[in-house]
Write a structure and sequence with these properties.
By secondary structure, this protein is mainly beta. The protein has helices spanning about 1-15, 200, 305-310, and strands spanning about 20-25, 35-40, 50-55, 60-65, 75-80, 95-100, 100-105, 105-110, 120-125, 130, 135-145, 150-160, 165-170, 180-190, 200-210, 210-215, 225, 230, 240, 245-250, 260-265, 270-275, 275-280, 295, 310-320, 330-335, 345-350, 355-365, 365-375, 380-385, 395-405, 410-420. It is about 5% helix and about 45% strand.
Length: about 425
């Protein structure tokens, strides 16, 4: 009997040793140009992943600004998706308890700020509408109760805790990746479910710094020991470590912080010019606290920054080593505030006069992390590293565990675990 179990373990390790793939599609999108600073986060924590545990007191906060400044009838609804963010073939009544559409009734006109806008807010789930099943949910915000008038979409997670996740961040075994990448070793205890074939029915997705654009999925278990799935193969769950994030302090427009070159103040607007960035690949690693690519709306000059914070046109620039554009490549500004979207909105244009890549965007008062993504013009999946990778870098990882029985039509989210590469590293201190 023991020999048979050993054969099963070896068989699983061989059959499911295919490499993990990345979730590359962007399902979060802004469809109306008048929508700015759309946020969905754990209530009270702007850097918190929007996770709601079924039948709990958890709350998720939705905030956004309409730059047209008038009052409009915005509504929202939930759409249940599979673990890969494809909508499932179920009626909304099967996974929403209460109304399928809800009007956002909390709004404030901007005050103090030079820029006029209307700020909208909603606390989810509402007593009149709540998800009834666990899984991935796409939050859709639209006008006038008409889902064809889509304003934007956001991703949120609904958890039904049935699995326990533990893990640690280690250096990869490979000599090529040892000093530049981080690897996760994980264990998932699924004693809370009755799984017929855990290796097939349980799926794991790993997020680095709450990013979906480079998430890893399709990660196979190395061993299955009763109710425990072990993920420790040397070729899985490996991420480029990167560097600590670039930062921009916009908490005050009057106080020009270290990263601001200069600012121009107009009667009803402000222009802020950020110091020119350069390629950091090859530079020494230096630790400093950051938001891991996230941002926080905050202002020194207001009581409530959500509806009193001002906007400015912020100008970014990036200088190449030789003052020439990268051949056959495109450069994008990236961070949580861009949704890591490789679109024309965030594409940097090369200025032949200045010899720099440049772009401008409206940004609200706050503290921002950002980076640059350089991609092959013919293949966006091919990226050129402009930051450098150091295994010492502080990164946060979120492990999502999904379960789908052979009779289910959707993926249940049954476990969420978090690991920090510095704080949770055994024997590591700084």
């Amino acid at each position: 009997m023991r020999f048979k179990k050993l054969l099963i373990i070896i068989f699983l390790g061989c059959c499911f040793s295919f490499p993990a793939v990345s979730v590359s599609q962007n399902v979060e999108k802004i469809f109306m140009p008048n929508i700015k600073t759309a946020q969905l986060f754990a209530y009270g924590n702007q850097q918190g992943l929007p996770v709601y545990t079924l039948n709990s007191s958890d709350r998720i906060e939705l905030d956004f600004d309409d730059m047209e400044g008038s009052v409009k009838s915005y509504y929202y609804t939930f759409v249940l998706c599979d673990y890969n963010w494809v909508p499932v073939n179920l009626s909304a009544f099967d996974y929403i308890k209460g109304f399928t559409q809800n009007r956002i009734s909390t709004y404030r006109y901007s005050s103090i700020a030079l820029t006029r806008y209307t700020h909208y807010q909603a606390i989810l789930p509402d007593r009149n509408s709540a998800p009834s099943k666990s899984g991935n949910y796409l939050l859709k915000v639209f006008l006038d109760g008409d889902t064809t008038k889509l304003a934007f979409t956001k991703q949120m997670l609904v958890l039904d805790q049935k699995a326990a996740v533990t893990g640690e961040v280690v250096q990869p075994f490979s000599a090529q990746l040892f000093s530049t990448h981080q690897k996760l070793r994980m264990s998932v205890n699924i004693s809370g479910i009755n799984s017929f074939s855990a290796a097939q029915q349980v799926k794991v997705v790993i997020l680095q710094n709450n990013r979906w654009d480079n998430a890893q999925k399709g990660i196979p278990p190395t061993f299955v020991r009763g109710n425990v799935l072990e993920y420790n193969s040397e070729n899985i769950a490996i991420f480029p470590a990167g560097k600590e994030w670039r930062w921009l302090d916009l908490r005050s427009f009057r106080l020009q912080t270290d990263r601001v070159e200069n600012a121009t103040y107009h009667k009803d607007a402000t222009d802020i010019y950020v110091k020119t960035d350069i390629d950091r690949n090859g530079q020494r690693y230096l630790y400093f606290p950051d938001y891991n690519g996230m941002y926080k709306i905050v202002s020194y000059e207001s009581i409530n920054p959500f509806w009193q914070g001002d906007y400015a046109t912020v100008h970014f620039s990036f200088a190449t080593a030789d003052g020439k554009p990268y051949p056959k490549k495109d450069l994008y500004l990236a961070g949580y505030f861009t949704g890591y979207e490789l679109s024309d909105t965030w594409k940097m244009n090369f200025n032949e006069v200045t010899g720099r890549y440049e772009t401008s965007t409206m940004m609200k008062q706050g503290y921002y992390n950002y980076t640059y993504l350089c991609t092959d013009r013919d293949d966006l999946s091919k990226k050129t590293d402009l930051e450098g990778n150091y295994w010492e870098t502080e990164n946060s990882y979120t492990i999502l565990v999904y379960y789908k029985s052979f009779t289910d039509r959707y993926d249940q989210l049954i476990g969420v675990g978090s690991i920090n590469s510095r704080n949770d590293r055994p024997g590591f201190s700084f």
